[in-house]
Amino acid sequence: MNKITMSVGSGGASTRSFVSDIIFSRLGNEILNKASDSAILDVSSKTAFTTDSYVVRPEFFPGGDIGKISICGTVNDLLVSGAVPKYLSFGLIVPEGYLVSDLERILDSMAAECRKAGVKVVCGDTKVVEKGAVDGLIINTSGIGDAVYNYTDVSNIKEGDAVIITSDIARHGMSVMLARGELGFEGEILSDCACLLDIFESIAGMNVKFARDATRGGVAAVLNEIASDCGLGFLMKESDIPIHENVGYLCDMLGFDPLAVANEGLAVIIVEQGEAEAVLEKIKNCESGKRASVCGIVEGKNVVLETAIGGKRHIEMPSGELLPRIC
Ligand code: MG
Fold first, then answer.
1. Which pLDDT value is given to residue 11?
2. Are residues 127 and 207 in the same domain?
3. Residue 105 — left, alpha, or beta (φ > 0 → left; ψ -120 to 50 → alpha)?
4. Cα of 73 from ligand 1 centre, angstroms
5. What's the rounded Cα separation, in Å, for the pair 312 and 236?
6. Domain span at residue 162?
7. What tens digit of pLDDT does each residue of 232-280 get?
8. Helices 100-117 and 66-80 sit at what angle, rounded to 10 degrees?
9. At residue 320, does pLDDT exceed 90?
10. What is the 27 CA–ligand 1 centroid distance (Å)?
């Protein structure tokens, strides 16, 4: 079989062989392989639960693909909540005629990320729809984890706390945009798409007050969300915000504010000022945190950027859809 046919979604013999040959061979484990109507799980009394759907185009981009993002995105939502990710579900919506080899590559990257994140896929579903009903693969993943720490409570945030950004900004959005080939530029930018397990393992038990991953809407959206939820503002220092030279250059040329561009492997972490350097050091020792930086403090009521030349401007909540289908 080179292409996915309608019969794969029929529930009959070809569904069974698709599931065992293509899915279980990659994502299988003792729970998934039982193929029962529900997965029976051992979870702690306090459990974090999250879900996300993934529609990124192109499905393959430098540094990742829709499969990798579908695992990292959901795992990161658990991690930034203070949970230890454990189990995932997935739903695939596949158009008739989809290349089996592409689907296999995507499932291979899902499996690789699950291994890195230490999570098991425990249930799933595949639906095949008529050609043209969707323009490519759509994936939904949900995840649960043990809610060990609480990084979701904005009432912990106080004036003077420090803001850490765990990586250089705007790489995912710019990577996907270049990969679409609509800009008339050659070249490639690697997406930051990554699972943040190493970072959150390394800072476990430290005094983290709040965390959120900055995906769609970028760091600007996250800072504005937190500010409006806790009633406090931020003063961010532009010269301390990490950005790759090429990404900054491309944003400048296209008139994008890199603070509003999507990331897929970056968290905003708020800690007490006195602990910022110790937390930063742990993060910088991690593969996905090498370019982390303390780049702002909780101050005032607005989200303000102190620019490299010493001016000040408001960082606005991004409005409208800057880049559709980015994740
Ligand atoms: Mg999130």
1. 85
2. no
3. alpha
4. 7
5. 10
6. 154-314
7. 999 999 999 999 999 999 999 999 999 999 999 999 999 999 999 999 9
8. 20
9. no
10. 24
